[in-house]
Amino acid sequence: MTTNRFGYLAAHLFVLAYCVVLLMSLGIQLLQHELPCPLCLVQRMAMLLAAGGAAYVIVRSREGEISPVDYMAGYGFAVLAAVGGMAMSARQVMLHLTDPVGYGPPVLGLHFYTWALITFLVVIVFCALSFVFAPRLMPKGVSYGAASKAVVWLLVAIAAVIVVMTFLQEGFHWVVPDDPTEYALL
Question: What is the per-residue pLDDT across 87-113, written as a single tens digit (0 to 9) for each?
Fold first, then answer.
């Protein structure tokens, strides 16, 4: 049996990269008291869904090999989530084109919504390349070990924290204010 660990490693790096981005956004929310606006929340959900597509590839390759259908489904789902997230990010960037200050603190000179737009574009390019080189990248002969479980469970834990933080911010209301300043339930 031939082995292909690069595609498996790439899926892990995909999930870990979004985990880092989401942890940074949660850190700014908690440490600098910068609550996410509704568009930011939607972008976070799109990031979770995109990373979920890569996590699906990891989980489906538990047996050491993944079917082409599962591989394409996982990354296809990631593309759909990235397109939706990209639309929300682009809308937010356009909302702040005339506002030089923007919303929230800049990170390395760009605001989070601009970085989100860039990450969604990177996801689309990554998935396109994964489709083109699928025969060479589909995981084969890999083991679903403790590291893989840790990556998937890290994503699940971050998703749970985001859901709880969003509920604390939104409370029992259907709408988050455009410029949130406090947690509704605290």
Answer: 999 998 888 777 766 676 777 888 888
User: pLDDT digit string (tens) for 38-81?
Assistant: 888 899 999 999 999 999 988 888 776 788 888 889 999 999 99
- In a domain, residue 1? The reply is no
Instruction: List all residues 6 or more positions away from 174 whose beta carbon is below 8 Å from its beta carbon.
Output: none
Cβ atoms of 81 and 155 closer than 8 Å: no
Instruction: Identify whether 145 is part of a domain.
Output: yes
Residue 41 near residue 22, CB atoms below 8 Å: no
- Report how many domains make up the chain: 1
For residues 161 and 26, the answer to whether their CB atoms sit within 8 Å is yes
Name the DSSP class of 65: B
**According to the 3-state scheme, what is the secondary structure of 148-174?**
HHHHHHHHHHHHHHHHHHHHHHHCCCC
CA distance 17 to 154: 12
- Those residues with Cβ within 8 angstroms of residue 86's Cβ, 6 or more apart along the chain or in another chain: 117, 120, 121, 124
Q: How far is CA 76 from the centre of its chain?
A: 14
pLDDT higher at 179 or 20: 20
Range of the structural domain that residue 158 is part of: 6-170
Residue 148 belongs to some domain of the structure:
yes
Residue 87 in any domain: the answer is yes
Q: pTM of the entire structure?
A: 0.88
